Amino acid sequence: MDAFITKILGEAGPLGIVACLLVGLACAYPFIRKNLREASDDTAIRTAADALRKELGELLDKEQARVATLTGALEEASTQVRALRGENGSLQADIASLRREVRSMLRMCMSMRAAMQRAVDTGDCAPLRLWLDLNPIEADEARPAA
Q: Which residues of 28-67 are buried (b: 16+ CB within 10 A; e: fewer)?
């Protein structure tokens, strides 16, 4: 091989080899540069992807914490709503009971008024005496203050 190179290049063999290597390197430079750029682009993409993955992971953790907090608040509100509905039901029952009591008191008052009106019209004081007997005068101390 050395004989062949010496025959082609003569005595300047090593210089020719260096020149051929430099020309080959110059021809291969765009290809090498392209591969290095792609490698650096791949590294940059990986770095950016890792940073995005980390940031998205942190955001996901924050959102999961917020969802957990809101879920707890929703459960507490739901419990309070159930309690208020139960209380509302008992209050509605109390209101219905009071309405029945007021209606019965109103009927009693209307019947008393009718009886008083008859007593006044007929001059009969028996209903008034009956009422006075059923409702004796209370002592001032036993009577509640208005």
A: eeeeeeeeeeeeeeeeeeeeeeeeeeeeeeeeeeeeeeee
- 3-class state of residue 143 by DSSP: coil
In this structure, are residues 126 and 119 in contact, taking their beta carbons and an 8 Å threshold? yes
Per the domain annotation, does 128 fall within a domain? Answer: no
Cα(124)–Cα(106) distance, integer angstroms:
24
pTM, rounded to two decimals: 0.41
Query: What confidence tens digit (pLDDT) does each residue in 54-81 have?
Result: 999 999 999 999 999 999 999 999 999 9
Distance CA 77, CA 60 (A): 25
131 in any annotated domain: no
Quote the mean pLDDT of the chain. 82
138 inside domain: no
Integer Cα distance of 115 and 119 in angstroms = 6
